[in-house]
Amino acid sequence: MSESTEQLPWFCIRSQPRRERIAWSQLSILPGVTVMFPRARYVRKGAKGKRLITEAIFPNYLFAQFDPKQSARAVGYAKGVSYIVKKGDAFANVPASVIAELDELTDEGIFEMPPAPLKMGDEIKVVAGIFEGSEAEIVGLVPAKDRVRILLDLLGRATVVDIHTDEVDRPSSHPLQSG
């Protein structure tokens, strides 16, 4: 960033639902506007194998640095933007330290999420094999064979089954929401 843009305030932008990427691309081409769109990238397991997923860390929100006197109208009416977040009658400033920390934690706005290790007591979803679609609890780990022991309800009876770790995923769709 140049010295002049470092002096400008940062603002929170609300995008239209699921249109963060469109808002980001439109704001990025506006003169005098710098955009930060923090995203998380992680591996999601499914029936067709592993996929690399990239999602907004703050769904429907991104950040923009601009001179409100010169660019507020263009920013507010950019395609994909719903509005600039306000506090009272004024646009709500986002502290530059928050943006700096997000920038430090990400690589070009993307935070790489390593897969969390499975552990006893985790609630999982079976995404492949004959038990696909079932939800279960991990009751044991068999790391030497890359398998987990899960407790399934089969025919009205709790049954312990060993399955490969590639056949399970956590039910949460967003890595920051899983516990």
Automatic annotation (TrEMBL):
Entry-linked InterPro entries: NGN-like_dom, NGN_dom_sf, Translation_prot_SH3-like_sf
UniProt keyword annotations, A-Z: Transcription
Gene3D superfamilies linked to this entry: NusG, N-terminal domain (3.30.70.940)
Pfam families per record: NusG (PF02357)
GO BP annotations listed: DNA-templated transcription elongation
Residues annotated as domain NusG-like N-terminal: 10-101
Name of the protein: Transcription termination/antitermination NusG family protein
